[in-house]
Every structure is written in structure tokens, then in C-alpha cells.
From TrEMBL:
It comes from the Archaea. It comes from Haloplanus aerogenes. This is Uncharacterized protein.
Length: 57
């Protein structure tokens, strides 16, 4: 598939996290074509870092 073509049924993979203009987003990329999307994180379900077991490591 060339870089100009896109597929009809995307196969999404999470490839990273970025800060776009102050908004934290998860980056999703199609495994079969060059299409990608930025999904903003939902502030309503954010958990404070101190409240996670990871913060104790």
C-alpha cells in the first residue's frame, strides 16, 4: 500500500502519548495504512499519581 492509500477497516494500535497545546493525547496509528488519530485523555476519569500503586515503586 502506498503512502497515499488508506484502508477501509483500520487496525488501530496505540503508539504513544503526546502533549498537544496543553492537552494530553494518546496517539493511535493504523497498522495497515498511514492514518493516525490523537485521542484526548478524559479529565473526568483521571486518578492522582499518588493514588496509584505505581507511585510507591
Amino acid at each position: 500500500m502506498s503512502t497515499e492509500e488508506t484502508c477501509e477497516a483500520h487496525v488501530w494500535a496505540s503508539v504513544g502519548v503526546v502533549n498537544r497545546d496543553g492537552t494530553v493525547c494518546k496517539i493511535w496509528e493504523c497498522e495497515n495504512c498511514p492514518v493516525w488519530a490523537a485521542e484526548p485523555f478524559d479529565d473526568a476519569v483521571e486518578r492522582a499519581w499518588e493514588d496509584t500503586w505505581l507511585s510507591e515503586r
